Amino acid sequence: MIRAVVRGFGAALPKRVVPNAELEKTVDTTDEWIVQRTGIRQRYIAGEGETTASLGEAAAREALERAGLEPQAIDLIIVATASPDNTFPATAVDIQARLGITGGAAFDMQAVCSGFVFAMATADAYLRTGLARRALVIGAETFSRLLDWNDRTTCVLFGDGAGAVVLEAVEGEGTVADRGILTAQLRSDGSHKAKLYVDGGVSTTGTIGHLRMEGREVFKHAVGMITDVIEAAFAATGTTVEDVDWLVPHQANRRIIDGSAKKLGIPLEKVVVTVDRHGNTSAASIPLALHAAASDGRIKQGDLVLLEAMGGGFTWGSVLLRW
């Protein structure tokens, strides 16, 4: 059985760090309020010349270096983003060109904060069916450019950044002891669109628009939806919560992360948390968290790692993989 195995990982963050204290000067909020409600203490904001593609390229280059591969070894690039550089072409083809890759396929995936999970599942399908051999899966966002900086309920939550992994098709035994992606569980329910969306677009307003969110409604649904796809991953693989070495959740809100872990019975010491320093970086949050935990040695080869996310739409999903 073919498995999509992680060969390398990378990350990139903008130069500018914006602590909560800086936002206190521009909107009616406080550091204490932001930390208490969200767990966020700072975020990175893209400056001039820093774009979704440039951040994605930097993360991809680190992932390739860690994998010991030249760019031409990649025959599939999937970029998860809700903040592309252009309406078209896809940010993925821009990154492909920046890396000097001239073969294979490159495209974007839009599932907002669940985008990286959806992109990992898609790359897994390509690799397992022989449509590609090695894939770059990138989550990259410049969400700061979608924000209404006068809306204190949303502008304090989000940040910019990018993370990437290199996946390679490797033959496994077909058991949960295999390295690579063991299962992916994806869900969507468009009836929740109005709870988290951007109020602009090409065919509606002709503008980029701003992010709008009903925070309480999102919070209300988040824990249950996350639990749904995690339990489905366990059912699909015959594993249990006790088998999980690390939970790497979407970094939206510390209360959602803690609530989900508690409901599932996962000890907080097994949960990777970076929301305090990155804020919510949408599709970039899981690969940024993976990078943090793998580069400092917490996540080791052979560990069972559970990824989960929920995003606008609503979309939600999980990936269970052996590192």
- What's the CATH class label of the largest domain? Alpha Beta
The strand count comes to: 13
Please describe the biggest sheet, giving its number of strands, its sense, and whether it closes into a barrel: 5 strands, mixed
Q: Quickly count the domains.
A: 2
Rg on CA atoms, Å: 18 Å
Q: Which geometry do the CA atoms define?
A: globular
- Mean of all residue-level pLDDT scores: 97
Q: Strand order, biggest sheet? A: 1-7-6-4-5
CATH-defined architecture of the largest domain: 3-Layer(aba) Sandwich
> N- to C-terminal separation?
17 Å
Instruction: Please count the helical segments.
Output: 9
CATH level-four homologous superfamily name of the largest domain = Thiolase/Chalcone synthase
User: In which range does the helix fraction lie?
Assistant: 25-40%
Q: Approximately how much beta-strand content do the residues carry?
A: 25-35%
User: Low-confidence spans: pLDDT under 50, at least 5 residues?
Assistant: none
Order of helices and strands: EEHHEHEHEHEEEEEHEHHHEE
Task: Specify the structural class.
Answer: alpha/beta
CATH-defined fold name of the largest domain: Peroxisomal Thiolase, Chain A, domain 1
Protein name: Beta-ketoacyl-[acyl-carrier-protein] synthase III
GO molecular function: 3-oxoacyl-[acyl-carrier-protein] synthase activity; beta-ketoacyl-acyl-carrier-protein synthase III activity
Region (ACP-binding): 251-255
InterPro entries: ACP_syn_III_C, ACP_syn_III_N, FabH, Thiolase-like
